[in-house]
Amino acid sequence: MNANMTIIGGRKSKTALEKTMKGIFIVCGVFAIVAVLVITIYMIYSGAPAMFTIGLKDFLFGTEWAPTAADPKFGILPMILTSLVGTGLTILVGVPIALMAAVFVSEVAHKRLAGIVKPAIELLAGIPSVVYGLLGMIILVPQISKLEALLYANDPSHTFTGGANMLSGIIVLTIMILPTVVNISITSLKAVPNEYKEASLAMGATKMQTIFKVQIPAAKSGIITGVVLGIGRAIGEAMAIILVSGNVANMPALFNSVRFLTTGIVSEMSYASGLHREALFSIGLVLFIFIMIINIVLNTVLKKEAAANEK
Questions:
Q1: 242 near 65, Cβ under 8 Å?
Q2: By the 8 A CB rule, do 164 and 138 touch?
Q3: What is the pLDDT of residues 141-194, one digit of tens each?
Q4: CA 125 from centroid of its chain's CA atoms
Q5: By CB neighbour count within 10 A (0-12 exposed, 13-18 middle, 19+ buried), where does 101 fall?
Q6: pTM of the model
Q7: Which chain regions cross the lipid bilayer (predicted)?
């Protein structure tokens, strides 16, 4: 009798615990949804009015940003293109390097060496972005300045940036996204079942063929997730970029001083007022929309691939 009562009491306690945890999970999920909705509504409420006051065409496609001039101009096309081109080039350069590093750590390196390299990569992920910017300003910018002087020594039309230009920004961003993409790619590669690798090797494939034709395709969804997070960090970075890119609203070119959408907000928010301040919120709304579009597109692609694999 006592044993039965103990079992029943244990079942009731277990059921109560499960219900409590389920309630906590539901609350956390609802909180996340509410947070996204509140941010979305606030960004639209704060940013949309200025767009229509300035004019959507003049705001998005204008090429001159002069909010404090006698005749204010609020064109953000140079900042939009700089953010898109800069992020695109960062991903184009950074993802192959990150993927090769992940393959090295997870499949090629000796366990002892991998045990040294992996913590070092994780340490890079924890370094504040402003530190990357400071190191870039002290070490990288002077070297880029020398390269710029060498390439444009006979070009009187070129405006020298002293090394604070888009190229410096791309290099710093590339270094910054590496830890995120590498760590997630390592986890994804290690999650691939050993049976895949063993079957490939048993069929006569070499180790490199197995890695690039079996393991990487099998880990593709996880690697893409790492790339998405890398894109988010690259397009949303401000402090490091403002120190090395020159922060001038020019059209994107490797040796032009440029201003990203994020740095445009950071550099002027402290003294902006009136329509100028509202326009900065509108820049934030544009940035928010870009990030949402990128996430929606990539998530849609991943879901379609998952559905195709299930079939």
A1: no
A2: no
A3: 999 999 998 888 888 888 888 889 999 999 999 999 999 899 888 988 888 888
A4: 12
A5: buried
A6: 0.85
A7: 21-45, 76-109, 121-144, 164-186, 223-244, 279-302
